[in-house]
Amino acid sequence: MAKDLTQLELLTELEPVAAENVNRHLSLAKEWHPHDYVPWEEGRNFAAMGGIDWDPEQSKLSELAKAAMITNLLTEDNLPSYHREIAENFSQDGAWGTWVGRWTAEENRHGIVMRDYLVVTRGVDPVALEQARMIHMTNGFASPTEELEKLPGSAGFLFSVAYVTFQELATRVSHRNTGKVCDDPIADRMLQRIAADENLHMIFYRNMCAAALDLSPDQTLEAITLILENFQMPGAGMPNFRRNGVLMAKHGIYDLRQHLEEVVNPVLKKWRIFERDDFSARGEETRDRLGNFLEKLGKDVVKFEEQRDRMLAREAAKREKELAASNS
Prior knowledge:
Layout: H1 7-28, H2 40-47, H3 63-77, H4 79-89, H5 94-121, H6 126-139, H7 145-148, H8 156-181, H9 185-215, H10 217-229, H11 241-250, H12 256-270, H13 281-327
Helix pairs in contact: 1-5, 1-9, 2-5, 3-5, 3-8, 3-11, 4-5, 5-9, 8-9, 8-10, 8-12, 9-10, 10-13
């Protein structure tokens, strides 16, 4: 049986791949500035009103768009926690250190531009938003790796790089779909710009995980499988996360089918997980477990959609009943 590599051995062996992918990222990343995506004139209009307290009537966003924007922004706000986890499981030296710094700087722009947009347009209650930010950042975020790293032979690097591959892609989907429901071309353009960043970040991590699969197939597959079995979006634990998450899933911003078909399956296909022939018996056993998990997830998708359709039908019938009553 192949010997599992330590975190230091993984980082050392994979640093040339990291350097190549940092250079690739820098060649593709586009420079952009948050202030170019904010309608500052709207802020001046509200300022001319004398700085009155926020009123829901000032917002042009639907309840769905508000929930999605708040969830996405608070997710971005927790960057210090994500930076800590990545920095601890990567390295501060060489290509790894360059990537951690660059990734952190790019991610920070996302929170800056989203907050400026929401505050300037009075899209959500700025006081409530700040209170939620304080709670979420105080609580911090710990990815599932803390529990997974207790397992024998595990390496934090593998769990981190597997998790962020799926998480960055999931965040891209969520940002992209949030832009569509905002009914504002400025918000849509802003969130598409953020989604493009997230896609490049995902590619970096996906490429690193692919290289790890080539280097230590069984060990890396175990990390991937454990991450998928325990996957949670990074916003878990923020104020109103369950309510907002349900609302977003119900209306197709990020639901279980999107998770499976737009995030999990494309990445596994890119890695050729079910076509590879370099796994040992141990890896084959893990791959079977992953296949069983995906089969169950597919069944869960159908159950979720059936429940969602029934819920939406009940809500539509209720609205029709209320409309008929108001017109009678």
